[in-house]
Amino acid sequence: MDIVFNLLTAAVLAGTPLLLGTLGEILTEKSGNLNLGVEGMMFMGAIAGIAGSWFTEQWFSGGGFAAAFVGLITSFLAGCLGALIYAFLTITLRANQNVTGLTLTIFGTGFGNFFGELLGKKAGNFVAVTTETKNAFAGAMNFGPLSKIPVIGQLLFQYNWLVYLSIILAIAMAWFLNKTRTGLNLRAVGESPATADAAGINVTKYKYAATIIGGGICGIAGMYISMVTCSGVWVHNCVNGYGWLAVALVIFSTWSPSRALLCGLIFGGLKILRLYVSIPGVATQIYDMLPYIATILVLIITSIRQSKELAQPKSCGLNYFREDR
Amino acid sequence: MSAQASKEIKEPLFRITKRGSITAGKAWAIRGLALLGALLTGALLILLLGHNPFEVYASMISGAFGKKIAIQETVKLTIPLLITGIGLAFAFKMKFWNIGGEGQILMGGVAASAVAIYGTSLPHVPKLLLMATAAIVVGGLYGMIPALFKAKWGTNETLFTLMMNYIAIQFIMFLQYQPAWQEERTSFPKIRMLDASAYLPKVFGVHIGWIISLILVFVAYIYIAKTKHGYEISVVGDSPNTARYAGINVSRVLIRTMFLSAALCGLVGFLQVSGSDGTLTENTANGVGFTAITVAWLAKMNPFAMVLVSLFIAVLERGSSSIQTSHGIPSSAASLLTGIILFFMLGCEFFINYRLVHRGKKGEN
Amino acid sequence: MLFLRFLEEEKLLDNQAKYAIEMRNVTKTFGSVVANHNVNLDLREGEILALLGENGSGKTTLMNMLSGIYFPDSGEIHVHGKEVSIRAPKDAFDLGIGMIHQHFKLVDVLTAAENIVLGLPGGVRINRKALSEKIREISSRYGFDIDPDKKVYNMSVSEKQTVEIIKVLYRGADILILDEPTAVLTPQETDKLFRILKAMKKDGKAIIIITHKMNEVLSVSDRVTILRKGEYIATVNTAEADKQSLTDMMVGHSVSLSIDRPVVEKKECRLSVRNLTCLSEDNVPAIRDVSFDAMGGEILGIAGIAGSGQKELCETLAGLYPAQPGSSIVFHRPEGGDEELVGHTAAELQKNGINISLAFVPEDRLGMGLVASLDMVDNLMLRTYRDHSGPFVDRKAAADVATRLVKELEIVIPGIHTPIRRLSGGNVQKVLLGREIEGNPHILVVAYPVRGLDINSSYTVYNLLNEQKKKGVSVIFIGEDLDVLMEISDHVMVLCGGEVSGIVDPRTTTKEEIGMMMVHVDNDRKENQA
Predict the structure, then answer these.
(1) CB contact under 8 A, B247 and C347
(2) Rounded distance, CA B296 to CA A96, Å?
(3) Is residue C324 included in any domain, yes or no?
(4) Of A1, A276, A234, nearest in space to A127 by CA
(5) Does residue C40 come out as left (phi exceeding 0), alpha (psi in the -120 to 50 range) or beta?
(6) How many Å apart are CA C484 and CA C302, to the nearest integer?
(7) How much is the mean pLDDT over chain A?
(8) Is the pLDDT of residue B18 over 90?
(9) Contacts of C270 (CB under 8 A, 6+ apart)
(10) Is the N end or the C end of chain B the one with fewer CB atoms within 10 Å?
């Protein structure tokens, strides 16, 4: 039983950055933009988060909650910045979405590692935030008596605040997309921009807003990696494919924020499975393939079933130009 | 209603219209300006870091071309970019988004290494030929898998090929733990160095991959522009419906072209293992599969233009590692700069295809 | 503001100014193509104005400038007497202008209610109950029949149109523009729509209906504005107009539409189609039990309202669409010998040289017949590039053909290496038809060959088809304009809902009779013919 508990809680922790990245990309794709730059935006958020916290500590001498909060904001803004570049190129200048997204990944990876090394030099040998700040990120939330309930307390009420933030974000996004006027308009933009345009919706504004906020959320996902997974130390190449996995997860959860909750957990579990369960005769490196193989299977299955409702927003990957003819 | 209508509504400041056509000179001038803008942005960044941009750029160029050995290193970086770019362009012309070049390179490398490791007794030339063939076939087959699913069910190839990259990396990590692949008498998780008889010969100090790549430039050009296969790729890429109408077997073209695309990537794996590194690691591809996408795109799928673009990116990379030693600027500057330049190049295409029309005087009364 | 007040006062003084819309000297160009040139249009409040013109005369472009899809290059637009600038559809809504496009602008995965409320201001949450209530209220006022919670992808065409109209009314529009609203409707649905339009007119709404069908103009409109080749021609009161005068204005000079129908002596059966059935993509029969013979030296016209199975029929004949078991298409070779075509793919037919015998000019010229980004030479090779051995293509032979065709068919083209997408519609069609005829076919299937073409290009096409007929080719002509079909064809086969409702001799049949057959399958009549 202990193994199952540990596996589950570890899966939640490992799945959270994936969930955040996935939520960011779902919001982006709902506007019809297929942004393959999630990896890049996560890198940007990762370095901006650590830099924001570190500078706050330096200037105000002392870490803790304030530094964590600044890190959250700076990582969000860095993700927004990456997405803004993407949005400007694809929406205003009508560049190809695939190539622009890949370029954003190249750029963002360079951005993260470049400034990571630079910051490392500035800080001596390597950047590390203080223990207080680290705890402000990674420390478990205190739910009082709730956390002490056996089993349930352990399973539900002992994570860091970013875990709860991302769960709330997923629920909020599901509500936003399905119940609100703005969410409905956004879905229309992603499905058929010409229809949305004819209905008086400002397609450009919606695309910009969804892409930039989506990028910001990806930035927070990156910060989770640098501040929680890597414990507030800048590690070269720390995002290491998580962004791509998030893109895959969007498909795995069939563009639904609420399903992303469950799917993020599954992927997180697959990511750390080898640390907890070993099957004799199967090499650990084979475990590491599982998330990727699982995504490929989902890709294949969804393509065979060809569901109208569980599909990518129809205009995804295509730029919209009203006077085109 | 009419109350709202009385609100003062002006014409938009700019309107965008499609250009009928543009002269080649003007188009290149716009691209030149974009490159200049990117370099200026880079210069600004260098300036903010407290360095002299001219010095840094000069140091980058001398780092790439200054000495004989520097030139050799730059060429060595160019080869994989160029061949992978050519390979990916095959798929892109067909609007098949092969972003799995990375994995196809690695699997080519695995096949070539396997020949060298299990066939130590083979003589030099047959060994090299067998390694190359294995790399081409395995790389090609690896890339054909997503194409098969795309042809049958329309499975999204962008993400499929992408996931295959990570599976290839994990597979190499798995091989690193296999005793047969490790150095003798060690159990360190690392694939051993290949025998000298598995190394490519050198011409002018660089392995003969550079000659192969130049030959491939011509062959690829002829294949795309002059052959029936190349013609079919153009038709399928532009309009699968027209291809169907013309009796072209779209699935077959898709699978065949994707095999060729991935086979060239596989060949790169062989060249890296046998010519450049002498062994196989999970970093053998080192991002080439991704960077080459931008090579192909910037060159507008033209193999000759790809020579220039891949050389340019190699200079950036080579130059960036030299400014790390000379100025203490992290070498990750290469991807940062590549990104900036690419953003500018992508953006400038807009001004080649469209025209901004300023609103006339009429709207201002 | 002073200026505006002055306008208001002037409006009060001038009681004549009851125009909902005035367009003055509006011009719009796309690249080098002039879609509208100095066009004027007036719409009074409480009237139905028909905007009449041929395909490609600029009707839709003009209306798109009212609905904010396009922005005019020059000219003025006044709405209820005030000059306005309509930059986006939102501006049009604010002015009370609502347009129902020919291709419905609805989001498939959303419900009717969601589509109706799309883009409207209001509370954060959507109040679905109040929404449904209001939709029901509008529906009952004008006699619509709609389920607010039905998803659009489950709807019929007429239901979708209803959603579009309610969408516009829900937004409080008092100026409605309908772009060819009857093209996809049955006569009963059309009657119902016209009743609704008249009810709206009584309500004081101003309505523009775009059409090229003369009967509709005469039966529903108060006035008619005619456009020709992007130019404004005239506006007349419907009561003072008749078919002849309107046609004259629409086509420019008095044409009796006199298309030749040469008589060919030697006729042989080229194609026997028996019990042809095939399913649409949704697995419902798209054509059912279709049987006919196509003769060499004849033009077989195929009539029917849009979506009666025309597309599936010609694609099945061309081997691009699978036929159901039990179907049979037999090709009779002129030199003797029969060939069963059902059960073979396009690629197999190609191998047997069949698809050169059967040439096909599809409806979607750039999306199916041609490759838009390639030049004329490459497009001419499409059918023949495999014919010689070796791995290379032979562009020289194709270039020679291109040069010859440019001269013969008077194709206006900057050069034979210009991408086809840069050509005008008429020239695109000439390239396509030229290539298909170049293969010396025995059967020539043409789908809507003059759609979007000007009069001159249309006649070039008619002449080309007649020439083929005289050469002994069996021509199958799928058309939408009954007048043309009845003048050019030797026989007219009428499709209704995927079934053949009759094959008639156009010389002895009236247009009204064919019109009836398009909407109604009379089984007795079919029996008699069989």
Answers:
(1) yes
(2) 13
(3) yes
(4) A234
(5) beta
(6) 11
(7) 87
(8) no
(9) C294, C295, C296, C331, C332, C334, C442, C443, C474
(10) C
Task: Tell me if C466 is assigned to some domain.
Answer: yes
Residue C320 corresponds to which tokens in the numbers above? Answer: 């691009």
The residue extents of the domains of chain A are 19-240
Tokens of B288: 């080439």
Task: Count how many domains chain C has.
Answer: 2
Residue pLDDT, tens place only, C429-482 = 899 999 999 888 899 999 998 877 777 788 889 999 999 999 999 999 998 777
Task: Flag if C174 and B1 touch (Cβ within 8 Å).
Answer: yes
CB atoms within 10 A of CB A134: 21
As a whole number of Å, the end-to-end CA separation of chain B is 24
Instruction: Name the one residue in this structure whose structure tokens are 């997503």.
Output: B146
The encoded tokens of residue C329 equal: 């298409």
Residues from chain C that touch A185, judged by Cβ atoms under 8 A, are: 118-119
Q: What is the least distance, in Å, from the CA of B69 to any CA of chain A?
A: 26
Kindly state whether residues C237 and C336 are assigned to the same domain: no
Distance from CA of B81 to the nearest CA of A (A): 15
Q: Hey, how many other C-beta atoms are within 10 angstroms of the C-beta on B60?
A: 26
pLDDT at position A294 is 84
Helices (H), C118-178: 128-142, 157-170
Residues C222 and C304 in one domain: no
pTM check: above 0.90: no
Phi, psi of A226 (to 5 degrees): -75, -35
In a domain? residue C47: yes
**B78-328: CATH number:** 1.10.3470
Residue C124 and residue C185 in one domain: yes
Q: Which of A31, A176, A178, A184 to mutate to test the interface with C (most CBs of C within 10 A)?
A: A184
The predicted complex's ipTM stands at 0.90
**Which member of A107, A117, A118 has the closest CB to residue B343?**
A107
Cβ A170 vs Cβ A260: under 8 Å: yes
Amino acid at C445: V
* Domain limits for position C231: 17-251
HEC-encoded secondary structure of B15-54 = EEEECCCCCHHHHHHHHHHHHHHHHHHHHHHHHHCCCCHH
* CATH assignment at residue C118: 3.40.50.300
With beta carbons less than 8 A apart as the criterion, state whether B115 and B130 touch. Answer: yes
pLDDT at residue number C12: 46
Mutate to test the interface with A, among C69, C115, C118 (most CBs of A within 10 A): C118
Burial class (CB within 10 angstroms; exposed 0-12, middle 13-18, buried 19+) of C218: middle
Helices marked H in C362-481: 376-380, 395-408, 425-438, 455-470
CB-count burial class (<10 Å; 0-12, 13-18, 19+) for B188: exposed
Facing B247 at nearest CB: one of C32, C346, C364: C346
Exposed / middle / buried, residue B25 (Cβ in 10 Å: 0-12, 13-18, 19+):
exposed
* Token code pair at residue B334: 């290469």
The letter for the amino acid at B112 is A
Q: What is the DSSP string of B223-266?
A: HHHHBHHHHHHHHHHH-HHHHHHTT--HHHHHHHHHHHHHHHHH
- pLDDT above 90 covers a percentage of chain A that reads 45
Structure tokens of C210? 């775009």
Which has the closest alpha carbon to C456: C430, C476, C480, C432?
A: C430
Distance between CA atoms of residues C62 and C58, nearest Å? 6
Asked if A305 is an interface residue toward chain C (Cβ–Cβ < 8 A), one would say no
Distances, alpha carbon B151 to alpha carbons A174, A265, B158, B253, in Å? 34, 32, 14, 10
Q: Where in chain B is the domain with CATH 1.10.3470?
A: 78-328
HSE (side-chain half, CA atoms, 13 Å) at B141: 8
Residues 6+ apart with CB under 8 A from B304: B217, B221
